[in-house]
C-alpha cells in the first residue's frame, strides 16, 4: 500500500510538473505581449495613425491565439491542488487558498471581462474605452500573476502562519506577511520582468522574420523599435531581481543554493562556478571531486549571497552533516526533532481515541505558544515537523545536475538577451538592421531560447524546493492525495495527449497567422 | 451567533452565490450543446458561436473563482472532495479545457484538427459540463463515501492522508444515486433553456429565433417536470445535521425543515422558481426579455437551494461511510482570521459585478446579425 502511495506521489509530481510546464509555455507571452499591445494601442490613440491600429490588431491576434490555452492549463493547475495534493490542501489551505480566491475576484474577472472588449469592441465602444479595456486586460493578467506568485513564494518560504493543534493545520496570522513577503515581491518582479523580456524577444523575432522576407517592413521596424527598448529595460530588471533571488535563496533555502552551485563543502569566500561539467552522482562527494572541469570566479558566490566577499556559504555536506561552529543542525538531528513533534501528534490521537483528556491537555500545552513549554517545543521541535517524514538525509538534496545546468542556461541566456536587444535596438535605430541577415536569423532563433530560459528558471525554483511541498514544513511525500497510482497515470497521459495536441494546433495557427501578417487587420 | 459563525455563514452565502452565477452562466454550455441543433448552416453555427464566445470567459472565470473561494473558505471540502472524487472532477476539468481553446481555434486557418473537431469539443463541454457539475453538486445533498481524520497526519505514507475516499470508484459512484443524476439532467436542461432564451435575445435573426423558441418550449417542459421531481425528493429526504455538541445526526425531512426555519430562503426559492416559469412563458411567445427573468430566477433558485444545503447546521457534504466525518460549514471552514481577511476582500465583489454588467451591456447593446459576420474583424 505504501509502495503504491509513493508511486502515486511520483505520478502526482509528474502530473503537476507537466501541467505547470505547459501552462508556462503560454503565460509569459500573455503577460508581456498584453503590455506591449497596450503600449501600441496607446500610440494609436495618441497619434491617430491608422498604422498603429493595424499593428496593434495584428499583435493582438497573436495574443488571442496564445491566451486561451494559458487559461485552460491554469484551471487544471488550480484544481490539481485538490485532486492530487489533498493533504497539502488541508494542511495549508487556510493560507494558500486566499491568494487563489483573491486572484479570481480581483484579477481574473478583470482580465476575462475586458478581454472581450479588447477583441470585439473595436467598433462597439469608444476609442478611449477600448484602450482602457486593453490596459485593464494586461493589468488583470499581471495582477493574476501577483497572487499566484504570492502563493508560490509562500511554498518556498512559509511566513505569517501558526500551527493549530485543534484543526491540525497551519493557519494564517498575518495577511501582510504572506502577501508582501520579500520572497513574494521579488518573485513577482523577477517573473513578470522575465516574461516581458520573453514577449519582447517574441516581437523582435517575428519582426525579424518579416525583415528577412522583405515584408511588412514598417510594422517590423516600428515593432522592433518598441520591443527592443522594452525588452532591454526589463532584461536588466530581470538580472537585478535574479540577483536578489539568489541572495534570498541563501537566506531561506540554503540547500537550493548549494545544489544550484554543486557546492558540497561550504566555506568563507565561496567562488561562483561560471561553467563546469559535473561528474556522475556516485563520484560526487566533495568540492574536489564534483566536477570534470570548472571555471570559477573567486568569492563571487559569497558576494552574491551575502554581499560580503568573506561570507560563509554552507555546502550540501554542511547542511546534511551539520556544522556546530556555524550553528547548523545536522539533518539527522532535524529528523529526530521532527519525529518527536509527529510523535506528540500521535500521542494526542491515541489519547483522543481513549478519551484521555489529561494527556490531550498536556499535548495541547506543548502546541500553545503562549506558554514557556509551548514556545520551546514549537521552536525546538515543531519547527522541524516536516523533517519527521524524511527517511534518509540524502532525500533532502534536490537533483544537483538538473539545478546546476538549468541555472546556467537561464543566466547565460539572460545575459545574451540583454546583449542582443541592445544590438538590435542600436542597428534598427541606425536603419542598418535589415542588412544584417545573420543577426535577424539569430533574433528569430532566440524565441525558442527565451522559452527554454523561462522554463529553466522555473525548474530552478521548483526542483530546488524538493523534497518539500512547503519548505521544511511538508515534504511532497506526505502532501499527496490517497488515490491509486493507476488513476493518476491515466489522467497524466490523458492530459499530456490533450495538451500536446492543443500545443500543436496553437503553434500551427500561430505560424499561419504570422505568415498571413497584418493584411486582414 | 459569534463572529466565526457569522463569517462561516457569510462565506457559504458567497459560495452559494458563485455557484448560482455559474449555473446561470452555463447558458454558454447550453448554447454549445445546441450548436448543430439550432445552427443548420455554417453561417448559423458561426453566429451562435460568436454570440456565446463573447461570454465563455465569464463562465470559465466564475468556475475558477468558485474553486478558489471554496479553497479559501472551506479547505477541508477542497481536500476531501477533489482529492477523493477525483475521476469526476478530472472529467469536468477535461471538458472545460476543450472549451477554452475551441472558440479561439475553431475557425482559425491551419488549426490542424478542423472546424468540426472544435465544434465537437464545444458540444462535449456543452453537454458534459452541466451534467457532471450537476451530478457532483447532487452529492452535497445525498452524500459521498469518505472519512476524515485530521490526526491521520501522525501516520505514515498513505495512512497519513487526512481525507480518504472509501469507494474504489473515486466519485463515479455518484451516478448510482438517481437523485444526483437527476440534478445533473436538470442543470443540463436549465442550461439549454437559458441558452435558447439568450440566443433569442442576442441574435437578430428570425429563423434562429423561432428555432430557439421551439427548442426552449420542449426543453423547458422537461426541465420543469424533472426539477419538481427532484425538489419534492429533496424535501422528503433525510439530511445530516449537527447538534449543539457538534455531533452529526440524521434528521428526517431536514431540507423541508430548513425551508420552514429559514423563511427568507423559502421566499427566495419561490421568487426564483416563479421568475424561471415566467421566463419560460415569455420565451414560449418568442420574447427577447425571457433571458433576464430566466437568469435572475435561476440565480435566486440555485442560491436558495445551496443555502439549504449549508445553513441551519446542515452537513453540506454528508459522509455515507462515517456520519461523523460529514462536513459542515462549522467544522470545515478556514480560521476566523482568514475568513475575516477574505470578507474584506469580498467587499470588492460589487465593483466586479458593476463592471461586468457595464461591459455586458456595452457589447450586447445591439443584437448580432448575419451581416456582422461578413464585416470582418475578430470573430469566433
Topology, pairings included?
The complex is a heterodimer of chains A (521) and B (380).
Chain A: H1 2-47, H2 50-83, H3 86-120, H4 127-156, E1 161-164, E2 169-172, H5 175-179, H6 182-213, H7 217-252, H8 254-261, E3 267-268, E4 272-278, E5 291-297, H9 300-306, E6 312-313, H10 316-321, H11 331-354, H12 357-366, H13 372-380, H14 400-429, H15 437-463, E7 468-470, E8 474-475, H16 476-479, H17 485-516
Antiparallel strand pairs in A: 1-2, 3-6, 4-5, 7-8
Helix pairs in contact in A: 1-2, 1-4, 1-6, 1-15, 1-17, 2-3, 2-17, 3-4, 4-6, 6-7, 6-15, 7-8, 7-14, 8-14, 11-12, 14-15
Chain B: H1 3-25, H2 27-33, H3 35-38, H4 42-53, H5 56-73, H6 75-84, H7 86-105, H8 115-142, E1 146-148, E2 163-165, H9 178-202, H10 206-236, E3 239-242, E4 248-251, H11 254-261, H12 263-284, H13 290-310, E5 315-317, E6 327-328, H14 336-346, H15 349-364, H16 370-373
Antiparallel strand pairs in B: 1-2, 3-4, 5-6
Helix pairs in contact in B: 1-5, 1-13, 1-14, 2-8, 2-9, 5-6, 7-8, 8-9, 9-10, 9-13, 10-12, 12-13
Amino acid at each position: 500500500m505504501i509502495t503504491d502511495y509513493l508511486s502515486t506521489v511520483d505520478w502526482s509530481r509528474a502530473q503537476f510538473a507537466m501541467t505547470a510546464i505547459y501552462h508556462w509555455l503560454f503565460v509569459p507571452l500573455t503577460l508581456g505581449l498584453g503590455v506591449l499591445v497596450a503600449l501600441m494601442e496607446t500610440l494609436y490613440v495618441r497619434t491617430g495613425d491608422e498604422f498603429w491600429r493595424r499593428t496593434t490588431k495584428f499583435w493582438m491576434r497573436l495574443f488571442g491565439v496564445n491566451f486561451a490555452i494559458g487559461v485552460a492549463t491554469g484551471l487544471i493547475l488550480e484544481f490539481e491542488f485538490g485532486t492530487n495534493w489533498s493533504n497539502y490542501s488541508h494542511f495549508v489551505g487556510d493560507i494558500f487558498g486566499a491568494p487563489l480566491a483573491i486572484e479570481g475576484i480581483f484579477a481574473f474577472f478583470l482580465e476575462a471581462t475586458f478581454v472581450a472588449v479588447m477583441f470585439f469592441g473595436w467598433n462597439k465602444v469608444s476609442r478611449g474605452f477600448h484602450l482602457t479595456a486593453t490596459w485593464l486586460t494586461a493589468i488583470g493578467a499581471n495582477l493574476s500573476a501577483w497572487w499566484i506568485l504570492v502563493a508560490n513564494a509562500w511554498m518556498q518560504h512559509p511566513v505569517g502562519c501558526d500551527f493549530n493543534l485543534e484543526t491540525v493545520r497551519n493557519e494564517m496570522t498575518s495577511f501582510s506577511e504572506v502577501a508582501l513577503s520579500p520572497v513574494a515581491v521579488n518573485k513577482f518582479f523577477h517573473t513578470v520582468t522575465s516574461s516581458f523580456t520573453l514577449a519582447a524577444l517574441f516581437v523582435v523575432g517575428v519582426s525579424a522574420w518579416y525583415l528577412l522576407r522583405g515584408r511588412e517592413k514598417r510594422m517590423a521596424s516600428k515593432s522592433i523599435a518598441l520591443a527592443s527598448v522594452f525588452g532591454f529595460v526589463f532584461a536588466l530588471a530581470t538580472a537585478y531581481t535574479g540577483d536578489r533571488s539568489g541572495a534570498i535563496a541563501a537566506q531561506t533555502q540554503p540547500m537550493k543554493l548549494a545544489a544550484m552551485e554543486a557546492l558540497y563543502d561550504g566555506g568563507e569566500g565561496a567562488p561562483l562556478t561560471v561553467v563546469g561539467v559535473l561528474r556522475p552522482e556516485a563520484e560526487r562527494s566533495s568540492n574536489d571531486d564534483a566536477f570534470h572541469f570548472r571555471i570559477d570566479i573567486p568569492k563571487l558566490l559569497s558576494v552574491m549571497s551575502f554581499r560580503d566577499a568573506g561570507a560563509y556559504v554552507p555546502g550540501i555536506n554542511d547542511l546534511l552533516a551539520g556544522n556546530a561552529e556555524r550553528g547548523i543542525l545536522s539533518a539527522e538531528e532535524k529528523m529526530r526533532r521532527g519525529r518527536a513533534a509527529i510523535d506528540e501528534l500521535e500521542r494526542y490521537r491515541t489519547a483522543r481515541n481513549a478519551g484521555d483528556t489529561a494527556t490531550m491537555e498536556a499535548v495541547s500545552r506543548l502546541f500553545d505558544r503562549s506558554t514557556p513549554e509551548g514556545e520551546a517545543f514549537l521552536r525546538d521541535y515543531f519547527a522541524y515537523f516536516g523533517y519527521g517524514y524524511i527517511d534518509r538525509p540524502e532525500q533532502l538534496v534536490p537533483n544537483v545536475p538538473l539545478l546546476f545546468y538549468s541555472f546556467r542556461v537561464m543566466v547565460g541566456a539572460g545575459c545574451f538577451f540583454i546583449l542582443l536587444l541592445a544590438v538590435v535596438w542600436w542597428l534598427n535605430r541606425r536603419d542598418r538592421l535589415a542588412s544584417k541577415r545573420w543577426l535577424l536569423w539569430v533574433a528569430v532563433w532566440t524565441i525558442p531560447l527565451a522559452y527554454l530560459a523561462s522554463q529553466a528558471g522555473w525548474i530552478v525554483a521548483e526542483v530546488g524546493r524538493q523534497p518539500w511541498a512547503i519548505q521544511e514544513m511538508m515534504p511532497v511525500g506526505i502532501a499527496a492525495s490517497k488515490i491509486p497510482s493507476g488513476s493518476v497515470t491515466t489522467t497524466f497521459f490523458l492530459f499530456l495527449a490533450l495538451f500536446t495536441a492543443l500545443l500543436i494546433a496553437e503553434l500551427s495557427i500561430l505560424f499561419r497567422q504570422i505568415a498571413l501578417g497584418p493584411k486582414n487587420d | 451567533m459569534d463572529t466565526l459563525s457569522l463569517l462561516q455563514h457569510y462565506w457559504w452565502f458567497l459560495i452559494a452565490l458563485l455557484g448560482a452565477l455559474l449555473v446561470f452562466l452555463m447558458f454558454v454550455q447550453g448554447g454549445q450543446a445546441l450548436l448543430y441543433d439550432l445552427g443548420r448552416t455554417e453561417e448559423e453555427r458561426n453566429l451562435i458561436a460568436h454570440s456565446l464566445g463573447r461570454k465563455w470567459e465569464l463562465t470559465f472565470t466564475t468556475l475558477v473563482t468558485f474553486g478558489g473561494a471554496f479553497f479559501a473558505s472551506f479547505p477541508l471540502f477542497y481536500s476531501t472532495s477533489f482529492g477523493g472524487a477525483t475521476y469526476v472532477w478530472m472529467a469536468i476539468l477535461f471538458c472545460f479545457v476543450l472549451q477554452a481553446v475551441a472558440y479561439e481555434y475553431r475557425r482559425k486557418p491551419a488549426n490542424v484538427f478542423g472546424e468540426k473537431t472544435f465544434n465537437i469539443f464545444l458540444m462535449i463541454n456543452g453537454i458534459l459540463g452541466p451534467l457532471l457539475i450537476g451530478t457532483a453538486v447532487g452529492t452535497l445533498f445525498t452524500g459521498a463515501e469518505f472519512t476524515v481524520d485530521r490526526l491521520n497526519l501522525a501516520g505514515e505514507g498513505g495512512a497519513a492522508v487526512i481525507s480518504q475516499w472509501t469507494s474504489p470508484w473515486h466519485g463515479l459512484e455518484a451516478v448510482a444515486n438517481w437523485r444526483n443524476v437527476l440534478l445533473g439532467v436538470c442543470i443540463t436542461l436549465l442550461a439549454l433553456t437559458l441558452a435558447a432564451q439568450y440566443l433569442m435575445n442576442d441574435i437578430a435573426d428570425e429563423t434562429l429565433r423561432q428555432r430557439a423558441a421551439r427548442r426552449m418550449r420542449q426543453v423547458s417542459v422537461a426541465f420543469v417536470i424533472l426539477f419538481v421531481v427532484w425538489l419534492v425528493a429533496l424535501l422528503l429526504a433525510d439530511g445530516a445535521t449537527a447538534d449543539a455538541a457538534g455531533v452529526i445526526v440524521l434528521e428526517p425531512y431536514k431540507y423541508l425543515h430548513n425551508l420552514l426555519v429559514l423563511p427568507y430562503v423559502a421566499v427566495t426559492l419561490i421568487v426564483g422558481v416563479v421568475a424561471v416559469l415566467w421566463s419560460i412563458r415569455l420565451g414560449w411567445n418568442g420574447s427577447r426579455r425571457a433571458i433576464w427573468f430566466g437568469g435572475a430566477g435561476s440565480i435566486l433558485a440555485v442560491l436558495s437551494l445551496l443555502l439549504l444545503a449549508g445553513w441551519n447546521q446542515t452537513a453540506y457534504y454528508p459522509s455515507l461511510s462515517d456520519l461523523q466525518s460529514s462536513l459542515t460549514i462549522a467544522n470545515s471552514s478556514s480560521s476566523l482570521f482568514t475568513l475575516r481577511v477574505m470578507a474584506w476582500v469580498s467587499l470588492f465583489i460589487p465593483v466586479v459585478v458593476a463592471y461586468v454588467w457595464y461591459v455586458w451591456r456595452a457589447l450586447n447593446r445591439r443584437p448580432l446579425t448575419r451581416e456582422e459576420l461578413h464585416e470582418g474583424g475578430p470573430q469566433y
